[in-house]
């Protein structure tokens, strides 16, 4: 029996960029965890994605990519989406959706046994609302144009060289895992003056399709939820991430000024995400209904709680697997102190580490396994019912013949 698991990245995320990975170490870790649980014939894919594309466009690309890997013929398919990737998964799996010509959506959707969303803005995020009031789209367009021309690429390369010098300065000051350090390691060493370099293609995508931010507003997500139905035979669940309220600046931030700026940026993002206008009237789980005794996060959850990008209340969908203390990117392996020394892109102070990382994805592996077993149980019941029906039919025919 072939089992396929698709990991779907979120907004501004590609499968790989500059030698890095969106779901850092997750595919291998999840594959091993599932095989330990008895699911041997499993393949875990990390999907590509349109970095800033609209949900419908991202779901369409995802479907094409899955078809190329045999999703329409697999015995079972599982979708795990981080951030807006969870919305791409919901749209793809929705009954009656039309993304491509033909009936391929139904063939793939009928094989989706579970859909797990991680840090997903099912009811939107105020951060998206704010992005629409800033020159965000114009900035993305300009970045894309820079990446499309030789002079623009030269300017960006020069900028990255300057960032590398700043990263070396921070290292000299005692900060060895800064954002600039990771940018220099992951991008500068891999970027080449070639039009087919993945980094330039990433920038081109930013310029071509910038529909994600409008789609992720609270108003747009109300329409999305009204239109996109769940598939009855699919198990829907979610994992919520929450960061502690950020602290003010400290004197030691002066020793690592870039890190201090990053902390300030996180405080701004956290403040944006906490500004929920009214309650989410149709939220799957109200903050007061989340029994913290059942979950790992020791923080109290209220309507202002968030992970730096998405309100916790907006992340709840289906069965809540856990509430994890970590920021929006910690959960996909982008945290300080990770085994591959990746930088802490969102310095949230959540103290998310290797133990929390493994525990969260172990719970996702448990849910995938439970979904497989539940499906096998239903399939067995259908088979037994069919056999009983055949026997009853034979008995009736013999009775009529007599």
Secondary-structure map:
Blueprint: E1 3-8, H1 26-36, E2 42-46, H2 55-68, E3 76-82, H3 85-93, H4 104-109, E4 112-118, H5 126-131, H6 136-148, H7 150-172, H8 179-188, H9 198-208, H10 212-215, H11 218-227, E5 235-242, H12 257-273, H13 312-315, E6 319-325, H14 354-401
Helix pairs in contact: 1-14, 2-3, 6-7, 6-9, 7-8
Give a summary of the structure in a few sentences.
The protein is an alpha/beta fold and 402 residues long. It folds into two domains: 3-132 and 215-377, 3-Layer(aba) Sandwich (Rossmann fold), CATH 3.40.50; 136-208, no CATH class.
Structure report:
By secondary structure, the protein is of the alpha/beta class. The chain folds into two domains: 3-132 and 215-377, Rossmann fold; 136-208, no CATH class. It contains 14 helices and six strands. The chain has helices at 26-36, 55-68, 85-93, 104-109, 126-131, 136-148, 150-172, 179-188, 198-208, 212-215, 218-227, 257-273, 312-315, 354-401, and strands at residues 3-8, 42-46, 76-82, 112-118, 235-242, 319-325. Strands 2-1-3-4-5-6 form a six-stranded parallel beta sheet, with helices on both faces. Strand 1, helix 1 and strand 2 (42-46) form a beta-alpha-beta unit. Helix 6 packs across helix 9 and helix 7 (150-172) crosses helix 8 (179-188). The longest helix has 48 residues, at 354-401. The two termini are 44 Å apart. 42% of the residues are buried. Residues 177-181 and 183-195 have low confidence and may be disordered.
């Amino acid at each position: 029996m072939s089992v396929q698991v698709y990991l779907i990245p979120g907004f501004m995320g590609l499968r790989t960029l500059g030698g890095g990975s969106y779901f850092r170490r997750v595919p291998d870790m999840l594959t091993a965890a599932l095989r330990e649980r008895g699911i041997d014939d499993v393949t875990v894919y990390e999907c590509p994605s349109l970095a800033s594309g609209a949900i419908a466009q991202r779901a369409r690309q995802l479907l094409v990519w899955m078809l190329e890997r045999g999703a329409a013929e697999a015995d079972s398919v599982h979708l795990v989406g981080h951030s807006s990737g969870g919305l791409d998964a919901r749209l793809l799996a929705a009954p009656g959706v039309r993304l491509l010509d033909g009936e391929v959506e139904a063939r793939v959707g009928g094989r989706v046994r579970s859909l797990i969303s991680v840090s997903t803005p099912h009811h939107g995020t105020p951060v998206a609302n704010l992005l629409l009031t800033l020159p965000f789209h114009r900035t993305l367009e300009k970045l894309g144009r820079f990446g499309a021309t030789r002079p623009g690429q030269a300017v960006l390369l020069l900028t990255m060289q300057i960032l590398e010098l700043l990263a070396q300065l921070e290292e000299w000051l005692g900060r060895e895992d800064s954002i600039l350090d990771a940018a220099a390691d992951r991008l500068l060493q891999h970027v080449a003056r070639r039009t087919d370099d993945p980094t330039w293609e990433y920038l081109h995508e930013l310029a071509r399709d910038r529909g994600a931010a409008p789609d992720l507003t609270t108003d747009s997500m109300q329409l999305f939820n009204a239109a996109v139905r769940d598939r009855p035979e699919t198990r829907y669940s979610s994992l919520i991430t929450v960061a502690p309220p950020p602290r003010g600046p400290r004197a030691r931030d002066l020793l690592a000024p870039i890190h201090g700026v990053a902390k300030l940026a996180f405080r701004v993002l956290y403040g944006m995400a906490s500004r929920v206008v009214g309650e989410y009237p149709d939220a799957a789980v109200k903050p007061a209904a989340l029994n913290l005794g059942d979950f790992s996060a020791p923080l109290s959850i209220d309507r202002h709680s968030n992970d730096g990008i998405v309100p916790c209340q907006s992340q709840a969908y289906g069965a809540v697997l856990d509430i994890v203390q970590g920021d929006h990117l910690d959960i996909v392996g982008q945290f300080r102190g990770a085994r591959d020394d990746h930088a802490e892109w969102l310095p949230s102070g959540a103290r998310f580490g290797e133990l929390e990382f493994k525990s969260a994805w172990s719970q996702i592996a448990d849910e995938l396994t439970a979904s497989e077993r539940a499906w096998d149980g239903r399939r067995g019941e259908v088979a037994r019912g069919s056999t009983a029906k055949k026997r009853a039919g034979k008995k009736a025919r013999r009775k009529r013949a007599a």
